[in-house]
Each structure stands twice: as C-alpha cells, then as structure tokens.
Sequence to fold (619 residues):
Amino acid sequence: MPKFLEELESGLMLGDGAVGTLFYQRGEPLNACYDALNLQKPEIVQQIHRDYLVAGARLIETNTFGANRLKLEKYGLERQVQAINREGARLAVEIARAAGAFAGGSVGPLVANPSAILDTGLKAECYSEQIQALLQGGVDVLFLETFGKVSELTLALGVARTLSDVPVIASLSFSDDGHTADGFRINDAFSRLKAAGAAVVGLNCHTGPLGAEKLLEELFVQSGDLISVYPNAGRPQYYEGRYIYHPTPQYFADYIPKLVAQGARLLGGCCGTTPETIRAMAQALRSVVPIREKRGRVLVEIQPGYVAAGPAAPDRLLSSSPPRAVIVTELDPPKSLQLDKMLAGAEALKRAGTDFITLADNSLAVLRLSNLAAAHLVREATHLEPIIHMACRDRNIIGLQSELMGLHALGLHHVLALTGDPAKMGDHPGATSVYDINSIGLIKTIKRLNEGFAANGRDLKCKTRFVIGCAFNPNTRSLDSQVRKLEDKITAGAQFVMTQPVFDPALVKTTLERTRHLRVPVLLGVMPLLNARNAEFLHNEVPGITIPEKIRDRMRGKDGPHGAEEGLNIARELCECVLQHFAGIYLITPLMRYDLTVQLTTYVREQERAPAFATVPSS
Fold:
C-alpha cells in the first residue's frame, strides 16, 4: 500500500491551503498565468510549498490546477502543458521529500464553465497529457479537485486509473443547496467516485467551513472511507482592486473538531486560506481523533403541490398534425420607448389569424426594449402566447437563468435559444459580448430547468415547463454542417425549429428532405421584401440571409408601394410552397411593417379555406 494511504488510514492528515491566493498577495498580477510560474519563477512556487510544510501540512499540491491545454490556450501556452506540469511536480516533490511529506498532483476542470460543451475524446486527451506529466514528475498522489460535475470528475478519474496505480483524491465542489452541477447529492456522488476507483473522496471550494459541515452531516461514513475536506475562507469581498477573505485562521481551527466528527480525514484549505490558516488547523488537529463510521442525516424532500413536469397541456406549436397551419409572426420590440406601434401590430396580427408572436432579443446587437417586457405587454393586450428569443451574448449563465426563472414566474413558456450576434457588430460596438455558453449550452440549461434544477445543480423546488426552440440557417453552402449542428440542438433538448428567411422554393424542398428525420416541427422563415435596396442590403450585408438573383431581379427598380407589393407577391408564393411541405410557417415583419405580415397571415388563412389547399404534417 502506498505510504500516503497508510498514513491517512492510520489517522488524520493536514493538507495545504490556497496557492493562487498567495501568488496574488505576494504581488503577482491577477490576470497572470499562475501555472506558468513553475517555469518563470520556480523559487516563488517552492517558497509557497515550503511555507505550508513549515505550517504543518503533510500533503502539498503542485501548482498545476489550471495547467491543461484548454486553459493554457488563453495565454498562448498550450504547447507547454508537459513542461509546466513536469516542472510543477518536480518543484513540489523536491520540497516534500526534504520534509518527509507527500506531493499531490493538482488537476482541475478543463474549463471554468461546467455547462461548456466539449468533445469527450478531446477532454480525455487533455486530462491524459496533464496527468502523464505529473506522474513523470514523481507525485505521490493525484488530486482531482473543484469539479462541479460527477460525470466530468469520473471521466478524469477514469483517465488517471488507466495511466497509473497512484492513489487518486477525487474532490467535488457542491452548490449552496447541496447538489453538484449535474444534480447529485453527497452520498450518491461519493459512491460513484469510489466505484470509479477513487482512493479518497471529498469536497472543496465554493463553501466555507460551515457549509462543508452541513454537507457532511448528510454523509454516511463506512469503515475504510477516506474523506477529504478543503473549504474556502468564506466568500471574498472585492475592494479597491483586491479580493479580501475575512474568516480568521482561528475560525478554521474552531471547525476542525466539527469536520472530523462528520468523517473528515484529510483536511486543508481552498481559496483565501494561507499558511497561517494551516498553522491554526494543525494545532487544532492535535486534540481530535478520526471517526470510523457514522450515519448521515436523512433528508426529507417536501415536494410542493405546484411542481410541473412539462407543458401543462398539449402545446399547439408541437402538434404533429395541427387542425390548421401554425403561424408564428416575428414583431421586433421597438428601439425607443414608444410602444403603440408594437401593440397595434400585435393586435392586428391576432385578428388576422397569427397563433404566436415571437420577439427578438436585441437582434443584430442593436438596443431595443426588453423582449421579456414586450412579451408581457403583448400577451396582456392580445392574449397571444409569445415566443421569446434568448441570446447568450448579453448575459452570463446567472443572468440567463434568472431571466428564465422570471419568464416561468410570469407564465411565459416558449423560448427560442440563440447564441446571438456579437456586440461589436451592433449600435454599441464598445459593449462586451458575454457568451458564457452557446445556444446548445442554453438549450441544455433550459432542459435542466424543466427537470427542476439550475445549471449548478441547485434544486429549484419546482420544474419549469418551457417549450424549447432553436434556430437553423438553410441559407448556407455547407448545409451538411448546419444540419449536424441542428441535430446537436435537437439532441440537447430543442423541441421545435425556426429558420432564417428563405427566398428560394427549391431550398424549401431541400430543407424538408434534410430535416424530415428530426421529427420535430420546423417553421420556415418567410419575410416580405420592401424594395430593391432592401433586397440588396439583406443579401449582401445581413449574416445568414441569401436572396437568389432571380428574386433580386424581380425586385430591381421597384420602390415605394410597387416594391412592397412585389415583395408581398414573392412572399405569398413562398408561403404556398412552404405550406405544401410544412405544417407551420414563421413570418418575419420587416422594420415594423406589420401591415405586410398581416396581409400574409390573412392570405394564408384565406388559402386554407380553399378546397385545393392542404398543409402536410410537420417534418
């Protein structure tokens, strides 16, 4: 048995504290690549290791938490993965050996966002190259830490187990409500990690000592279980450019008996902790002994009576054979605070026969009225169900979920998930694009809300019932690539599709053939052109729109009422073509000219009453 495990099984062991916190306190810039300091300033790295050992630590971690290919790419250091990790291991091992202590190879998640979509093969490669380098450096144990998802940690653990028999510590970061980001509570999570080959299972980061104790209260500890606990020093305060942690070393020391009583065997500190923290913990450890077994606190989940598991009733938008064509009409929120035209347009569209009003989310990155507010106003005025576009550009994962929870609270349940146009292409070019996640990540997040959980695993005590839409652009030379992306969106949880405007009848038929296998409703976009200049502008300057030359020829030289009438003629022909192949249609109002989409809606409804007109089932 490795000496590390022998010592841990015989009693309690103290780990080290934060490394990044000390780099920051000792003058390294917050935006620097701290992992690269293994090569650039090895004496500073070793001094931190030495300080923790002097304070009483028996296990120190390598300065390699973020030293994987994907995180190092941010600094242009992706080709130095092997060098940074080998040197990080060498520095820690050298200091630990001299003190008769142990060195653990620190491996963190590949990216900061637990909802990020990454290929499994790529993830395995990244973990493998980092872990191999740490093993080459001679570490005594691998410390896989701060993983938000059991699935991700299990993947990294599997890679480690295929490379070596070196013991693995597998440590999760739990949310405030006691769940991982993929919805596991502590007993189930730890059982899965042990079954996957972890020698030590534990928790670190996100929570302070009190939160760690509350999590461990649930834990059932059996003889032979080895549990690690590395809490944060509470939550930091950002003050004058610095992150300040308030809990004192004595506060940590006071929690040592409580954490040990809940099963902790390996104790250390995460963000905000220092050698002074570890020194206080070392003194407290002298007066406590480990427990071997304990029963955990059994949770009684109270399910509220208003939990919904999906759409409360069959949704007209998702019907495979609606009694009449489904018409969704886009009506952009205004760029000003004058709302009369938008509301008048919504009322006119309702009278004409539109089923849903869809509202864009600052399309083309141009400032408009909040589409959430617009949707509420439109529904109040017309009783039409809005479909709300939601772009990842302007809000981080917290803001997106907060807005979705607000939609649910207001009874707005139809959402179109979009990545969004970059901010620099809009009317505020100095604004920052967020893009915490992309459209697929947003679809998965909404699906998770429908299951009753936030992206970080928090139990929301109620399930949302969103109907999830996604976008598809058939106007592309690489249709195969777009279809593959659409398949990924459907797999992620999308339930219906809305396309960019189509101006070619042949492309309508092609789209049917290429999407038929998806078995979800597809609403093809049809947008009436206003004049020749409008046609050329859309074709040449708006991403995602292609207008065939024969259509532009028909519009050429036509302006004013003549241009709008020819645009309507083209749109009517396209509507007929679309509804010969699809059970629904997406009408796009150009520049708030709702009079044109009212005429198209009226035309579709009149054609439906004609004996020869019939729509086909949705693709």
